[in-house]
Amino acid sequence: QVQLVESGGGLVQPGGSLRLSCAVSGTIFSIYTMGWYRRAPGKQRELVAHITKDGSTNYADSVKGRFTISRENAKRTVYLQLNSLKPEDTAVYYCNRYGGVWAWGQGTQVTVSS
User: Fold this and answer.
1) Within 13 Å of residue 98, how many CA atoms lie on the same side as its CB?
2) Do residues 91 and 39 lie in contact, with contact meaning Cβ atoms separated by under 8 Å?
3) Nearest Cα to 24, choosing from 39, 35, 10?
4) What is the pLDDT at residue 53?
5) Mapping DSSP to helix (H, G, I), strand (E, B) and coil, where does residue 73 land?
6) How do residues 62-85 score in pLDDT, each as one tens digit?
7) Which residues are registered as beta bridge partners of 72?
């Protein structure tokens, strides 16, 4: 059974940075494209970034140039570096296999506010 454990969220002022981590267990991990998703209050969950097993990345237009996704296959961990944060980035952030096919973890709350 795949388990996803996200961490690293918090309260940050506009323009600040955070680094999110997602530890994955119960699967091979290295062969899958992984994604970071977020759900803002009153909105549907959306994909913000994904990374292939070979390290190729893609980003939603709303975060391009500010967020960076990376992975360490040996640690079964995927990261999301969040820079130049804006209030509209406030959301619960989740990781999952691209397409969201695994059971979701608890997510990590990111709040951007002055």
Assistant:
1) 15
2) yes
3) 35
4) 95
5) helix
6) 999 999 999 999 999 999 999 999
7) 77
Instruction: Report the distance separating Cα 73 and Cα 24, nearest Å.
Output: 10
Strand partners, 102: none
- DSSP lists the bridge partners of residue 43 as none
Neighbouring C-alpha atoms within 13 Å toward the C-beta of 76: 11
Extract long-range pairs of 68-72: CB within 8 Å, 24+ residues apart: 69/34, 69/36, 71/34
Contacts of 44 (CB under 8 A, 6+ apart): none
Range 16-39 average pLDDT: 96
How far does CA 15 lie from the centroid of its chain?
Answer: 18
b/e per residue, 60-99, with b = 16+ CB within 10 A?
A: eeebeeebbbebebeebbbbbebeebeeebbbbbbbbbee
Whether the predicted pLDDT of 89 surpasses 90:
yes
